[in-house]
Write a structure and sequence with these properties.
Blueprint lengths: L6 E3 L2 E3 L9 E2 L25 H13 L3 H6 L4 H15 L4 E8 L2 E11 L2 E14 L2 E4 L15 E5 L5 E4 L5 E6 L2 E4 L9 H12 L4 E5 L6 E4 L9 E3 L3 H12 L5 E6 L6 E6 L8 H4 L9 H11 L7 E4 L2 E4 L2 E4 L6 E5 H6 L3 H8 L6 H8 L5 E3 L8 E2 L6 H8 L6 E2 L1 H13 L8 E2 L8 E4 L6 H17 L11 E10 L4 E10 L2 E7 L6 H11 L1
Parallel strand pairs: 9-14
Antiparallel strand pairs: 1-2, 3-4, 4-5, 5-6, 6-7, 8-12, 9-10, 10-11, 12-13, 14-24, 15-16, 15-28, 17-20, 18-19, 21-25, 22-23, 26-27, 27-28
Helix pairs in contact: 5-14, 7-10, 7-13, 9-11
Amino acid sequence: MTWRRWVLAGGAVTMVAIVAAGVFVLRSEPAPTALSGSSGASGAGGTSDDPGTVAGQYLTAWSRGEFSTAGALTDDSASAVAALTRVRSDLALDPDAEMTQVSGTSVKFRVSWTLDQGSVFSYDDSLTLVQSGQRWLVHWTPTLIHPRLTADGRLELRGQTGAAAVLDRDGTPLLSWQRGQAQPVDPNVAPLLLPGMGRVAGELAGKGKSVVLTRPGAADEVLYGEGRLNTGPLTSTLSGPTQAAAQAAVDGAGAPAMLVAIQPSTGDLLAVAQNTMAGAAPTALTGLYAPGSTFKIATATAVLEGGKAGPDTVLPCPSSVQIGQRTIPNDDGFAYPPLPLHSAFAHSCNTTFAQLASELPATALVGAADQLGLNADFAIPGISTEAGKIVAPADSAAQVESAIGQGTDQASPFGLALAAATVAAGKAVTPRLWHGTDPGLQTAVTTPYQAPPGSVITELRSMMREVVTAGTATGLRGSGEVYGKTGTAQFGDGSQANGWFAGYRGDVAFAVLLLDTNSSTPAVSVAAAFLR
């Protein structure tokens, strides 16, 4: 960087600064030293340096975020420091300031704010130097930050114009833009989903961030913006009323509780809720637990599809059965005289299904689980999900444990809601969190699945309906036409158990999990509260 000496012409002092490319960048250079012909040393206080040097020092200090130094170089230090600090807080950025021309006590400069990669907000501005005793000082005015900024105005960085960033499916705002960030309108609504929704909104809005000038009583003025600026808020699949019902149901559970609801016809995630006792981690979406007898939906699929039995096939249901090295009991040791498969399903006869599973091929159960989506995998923008982990049993003993949802079987509330949605829809369901065609909103199916044959689906629906009308979920008989399956799954040393209900009503499929309740009855009660 080369500076030419001051040139005296016609009795007036004209300052000329020449640099490579015609301008010099102050952000990455040290503050310029006093020019030849100046009457004092440079310094933060301005001293008696010439106007160009003081202007350069001011712009350098501003660019570096040294607001106290910049303020001391103005004729209103307090106002300057306050305004520069506020803008730094609002934009979360420091500018690059380039002095482009000096003419007497007037200085022109260019300001550039790098909003993100490839997105730079730049404009030309000017300042005036005034003399105070032996010192030159920058005359402070808010227009030194931006030519249109006033004392009562603020600059805001936004992902897009407008208050709403994300809406629910009914158009109710879930997140709004606040100082460039998508913030919850109500943090208590879908707290497991809102952070991810905000990230997605920010990422998409990042394709076209905007800088907006706001003033009391005046319409917002967009000073810079591109890309998605005018496309409006994103719309999620979340249903506000369904989410509220889900949250109220788990909050009243009295135990750690989770609930996930999916719309079978579309794959829309309608609600994801868990109470504070279940912790802050999104275990409703990613937590893997033994599914217990809810897995009999898969076992029944394998039995029906393999032709081992039909819904009306009469089978034994003793209180316990010895199969190889395993003794499989019914819950609480109940027993029934021989009964049809559909009734054994409704009453959740472990012994019936264990005996059937012992006659199935080693791959039958994992194949049925695959058809219900329990081994499927998806990349859903904004959230992480884990449907389940069902593996082929290592031996015959493991196979009978797997048949009743124990052993190595694992599923999440999300996964069992997906399985219920598959039965309801009669086809594979792709879960999604967003409406819209933007590629950044689309669910990627990383591990696909194919639903069971239509004839098997029809039989499963009938059996799941009987669970509610005459089986283990009669607590839901007053909740409309509900289809489902209960489950009680032991964990740890086997002395404790979690309770499940997975099912659907109309176009809403859902799964409920309560931890350490030793019974599925509380899960059925939460399901009833949700459906009310």
